[in-house]
Every structure is written in C-alpha cells, then in structure tokens.
Amino acid sequence: MKTGPSARASTGTPQSPGSSTDGEESTVELLGGLDIETTADIEVPDRLIDQVIGQDRARDVVLKAAQQRRHVMMIGTPGTGKSMLAKAMSQLLPREELRDVLVSHNPNDGNRPTIRTVPAGEGQAIIEQHRVEARKRGQLRTMVMWLVLVAILAYAFLVAGEPLLGVLAAVVVFYIFRVSGRTQRASVPKILVSNADRHVAPFEDATGAHAGALLGDVRHDPYQSGGLATPSHDRVEAGAIHKASNGVLFVDEINTLGVRSQQKLMTAIQEGEFSITGQSEQSSGAMVKTDPVPTDFVMIAAGNMDAMGNMHPALRSRIKGYGYEVYMDDTIEDTPETRRKYARFVAQEVENDGRLPHFEADAVAEIVLEARRRAGRKGHLTLAFRNLGGLVRVAGDIARDEGAPVTTRAHVLAAKRRARSIEQQLADEYIERRKDYDLSLVEGSVVGRVNGLAVMGEDSGIVLPVIAEVTQSQGAGGVIATGGLQEVATEAVQNVSAVVKKYASVDLDEMDVHVQFVGAGAGGVDGDSASVTVATAVVSALEAIPVDQSVAMTGSLSVRGDVLPVGGVTYKIEAAAKAGLETIVIPAANEQDVLVESEYRDRVRIVPVSHISEVLDVALVDAVEKESLLDRLSSYAPGPGRDRNRGPGPTPAPQ
C-alpha cells in the first residue's frame, strides 16, 4: 500500500515520474510528475470554470447552458463543486445585456408603483437628475411657504390685532405645505436593481431564502398617516429573482423551498417577469403591487438525491424541459493528470484565502494521499473539495500561527488530527469509555461474542461487539435481534438465519437465536455490513466454539454464504487498530479499497475473505468442534475457477 511522500523536487514543469528507494511513491510521483518547490510555482487560472476539477460532464453542461441560456439542475454529494459551477456560469454570460431597474411613484394609483428599465449604469444618473429637480422645487416651495407665513403673521399682529388666530392660520398653512412636500418627495424614483459596477453577469445565491428575500417584498411603514408616510415605491425591495435577471439564480437544497415559493419561482421562470408585493406579516401586505419586474435569469437548482423527491414536479419539469440535469461525480480516477490538478487545487485555496502560507511539495502530496483515503475506492480521488479545502485551511492556519514561511507536511498531519469530524471525536471517546468499563475485549476467547466493525457518520470507524445466545424455543423458533436495528439491518439478520440453517448441525426451528448489538447507541444499526459478524456469533453459540477476541470483522453476507463488499473499510480498520485488535477480516472485494494511515498499518493483520467458511476459520479458536464444522462447510464453499466473491453476475456495490 502507498503511504507518505518521500522525496521533493524543485521546478514547476511536469516530468516523468521518478521512483523512490523504499518502493513507495515519491513526491514527484504523487504530484503527477509536477516538480515544484511550493504552490507559489503553480499558475492558477483566472476563470472559475477553468478551476473546476473532476466534474467534466457538469463543466461541459454549464458551458453549453451559458451559451444557450438554459437552466441546470445539479444533484450530488455536498461539497463537490455545485456552487462553484454556478458562479462560473455567471462569468460566462454576456454582460452587455445588463440593465438597471427603477421603481417610481404612480400618480394615478399610489399602491401600483411603475417599473422602468434602463441600460446598466444610467439608473443613478436618472436618480440624481430627479433629485436636483426636486431640490430646486423644494427650495422654491420653502421660500414661498416662509413668505406666506410671514405675511399671515404680520397681518394678524399688525393689522387685524388677532395674534392667536394668526398663529393658528400659520400652523395650518405650514401643515398644507408639509403634506404637499410628500408628493414632491414621491417624484424621485428609486433604484430597485443596480448593475452599474458589475463586470460580470449577476450571481444571486438564494439558498434558504424566505419568500420576501426570494420574490421581493414591500417594507412595513410605521408612519402611515399625518403626512409622514413613506411613498410606496420607496418601500419596495427587489428579490433574488429580480437581482439575478440576465444572470444566474442559484438555489441549493431546492427542496427546502416552500411549495408556494416554488410555484411563484416557476411563474417567474415562465413569464420572465414577476410583480413585487408584500410577502409577510411584517410587510405592507397586498395593497402595494408593482408593475412586473424583469426576471430573465438562468436558474441553477442543486441538492442531494432526496431533493428530486420533494421538489415541485412542475418546477422540475420546467427545468428539465428547458435545460439540463446532471449528476455530480463523487470520485475521479487517480491519474498523473488529475494529481497535477489536485496540486493546483491547493494553490487555488491558498490564493483564494489570501492569508495562508504556500504549501511545500511534500504537504501537497499529503493532501493527495488524503484525497485517496477519502475516496473509499482504490485508484480514485475524492471530489468532495469543500471538506478537503477545510483540511488545507486548517493546515495553513497552523503554519501561520507558528510563523512558518511555508506549510509543511507536518502541518498537514497536525491538521488531520485537529480537523477530526464530530463523529471521529465521538468514536475516539466511545472507544476510551469502553476500555474504562471493560466493554471491549481484545484478547482471550468467548463463545458467541464477536467484535464487529461499523462506521459513524461518513468517516469514523468504531468497534461494535455482537453477542449471540441460543435457547430452546417453546414454540416456533426464530431470530430475535436487539440494538435498534433499522430496516436494512433487520433484513440482513434474516439472511444470516438462512445461512445458519443451511450450515448448522441443529434444527433452528426448535431454537430461539438472540442477537444483541452491544452499545449500538440511540441511532441503532443501519446497513448490512454486520451480517458476517452476526453469522459468526450465531454459529459460535450454536456449536459452542469460542471466538478469538483479538479478531474483528466486517462484511455483508449473501444467503449462500458469500462475503460481499461493504463501505468504510479503511475507517473500520483504523478503529480496530485504535482499540488494540490484531486481526481484521474484510471482504476480498474490499482489499483494493484499503488505504490505512501508516501509524496503524503495522499494528494489524488484514485478512481478505470470500466465504463464511474462511471467516470462521480465522475467527474461531482451534478445537475439535471447529475442524468438524469446517469439514461440513467445505462442501458449500466455492471451488477453484469460480470467483469466490460473487456468482456469475456483476459484483454488487458496497453496502
């Protein structure tokens, strides 16, 4: 297996990969032949679309969609580049089509503000022109008002001799002028959408936006009487759909939008314009409604697989009928070319952050190794760049805190320890607590007890013991499993019962088989990767043959006894090593997926198996009963020439 880099080189051009003296890949090899000192030697493309790595299909779709102004829906794992592709599209759309949107007072209906569009950059000039004119009229009106007030007061005091009546008359006149000034203020339009300073097409991220932020709103006016009310057009606020006009509207987790918002969003897409009105109880309500505002945007909707199920079918039909759907890849083939791109990715993260020291070649090579581990597939690299970028930033922060001029491999290794996920931290604490209470057995032998391996979250392994006990049944026998099993796990236990009935020397119809998942936690057990563990525990209990407690295992089990591949094998092996276990049994099909950290590699022995008979041979302690059991199983084990990991069909995907 490949581990850390062992050499470093000095220029910035691709070269033929060299070989290291210890048989492991050198730094130059891990960087795909890229010979550099630091990431400062790597050129970062200016366009975002050229910075996208690994999503070639999605990249091609975005290029076509930008050219043809089509909508796009991207579905895939979080952190694989959906938002980056959406921003990249905004750079590809032409800027010359951008316009400013002005909203003005409607003298015929104050609750129906008018909308006007002008070329980008002209909106502010129009506003200034109206302000100058309003200011001149205001100055003239103020001068006239003071002349009238002085004349009224002079007449009242000097001629009529009625000072009180004069003061009252002056107040009335002042109020009349004040109310008329409101009409004067209403003559100045408001810029609803300004594109004056944009060098690229607009990009609006409306992820999680409430109705007002998405569709526009009308602000509440606390002064609605007495001549102090704000003109209705001044209270109108544009939504993301209006700001994104002639640009890109990006909505991640599209299924989280309310049904009404999705319906109105569909209307905006279909009509190319959408009026603004009050959307909440804090707004002015439905009394104010503008003329239609342009919403000629390109929409990029994104989400996970469940987004399609909860998405409004008419909205999805609109996107699908007038655009593209693309599934984002999770991994990419590990080739020299892609490794060079991953080195560029590190350089991009350093440049975009602006505060991180550049990475040495050894540090970049360690990032590539981590991308291999997180892929979960031999010969592939992960495309979850958001999480990988987090590791880059943590490593850079550590280097900066130390005052280091560059980020080294030691900083990356420290970042991997510091940037552990919550699940990893919980798993480590869980293992330590089990040791305190003697819940973990790593030596000796016990009948019916097997150390299984499970995964918490996405990247954290944990040891999960399984205990089986067989008792005489008072009626029809069955398998009774406890530990919060989910649907898939329950079905896996049923498959185990079929295998055990086939191989057992006793009649299970007269027995109750109790299976307990020890310390499964509140979330219970999901998936079928513990079915090999359950089968081993049940067979041990039936045959009264002890299980070696220094052995841990994982794997799915077919009804014929074949051991099938599962997910998270690398993390499970590392968890077993942390717990002090010595031998790890894994499916033979997963052998290619093992990328264990060097600190754990020499602490465990990994045994790949293809059939339950091989599992029992490793896990059960030597005894006369074991030999008898294996003799019985030998007639069922797959013979030579047949793929021991599957039947004639394709290899199933990891569970």
How would you sum up this structure, described in words?
- With 655 residues, the protein is of the alpha/beta class.
- It is built from 22 helices and 27 strands.
- The strands form nine sheets. It has a seven-stranded mixed beta sheet with strand order 20-21-19-18-23-26-27, sandwiched between helices.
- Helix 5 (123-160) packs antiparallel against helix 6 (163-185) and helix 14 (385-401) crosses helix 15 (409-418).
- The protein starts with 12 loop residues before the first strand and ends in a 21-residue tail after the last helix.
- Mean pLDDT is 81; it is low at 1-23 and 639-655.
Please describe the topology of this protein.
Blueprint: E1 13-14, H1 27-30, E2 34-35, H2 48-51, H3 56-68, E3 71-75, H4 82-92, E4 99-104, E5 114-119, H5 123-160, H6 163-185, E6 190-193, E7 203-205, H7 211-215, E8 217-218, E9 236-237, H8 240-243, E10 248-251, H9 259-271, E11 273-274, E12 293-294, E13 298-303, H10 306-310, H11 313-321, E14 323-327, E15 331-333, H12 336-353, H13 361-375, E16 380-382, H14 385-401, H15 409-418, H16 422-436, E17 445-447, E18 449-456, E19 460-472, E20 478-482, H17 487-503, E21 511-517, H18 531-543, E22 546-548, E23 551-553, E24 556-557, E25 563-564, H19 569-579, E26 583-587, H20 598-601, E27 605-609, H21 612-619, H22 624-634
Helix pairs in contact: 3-4, 5-6, 12-13, 12-14, 13-15, 14-15, 17-18
EC number: 3.4.21.-
Membrane topology: Multi-pass membrane protein
Transmembrane segments: 144-177
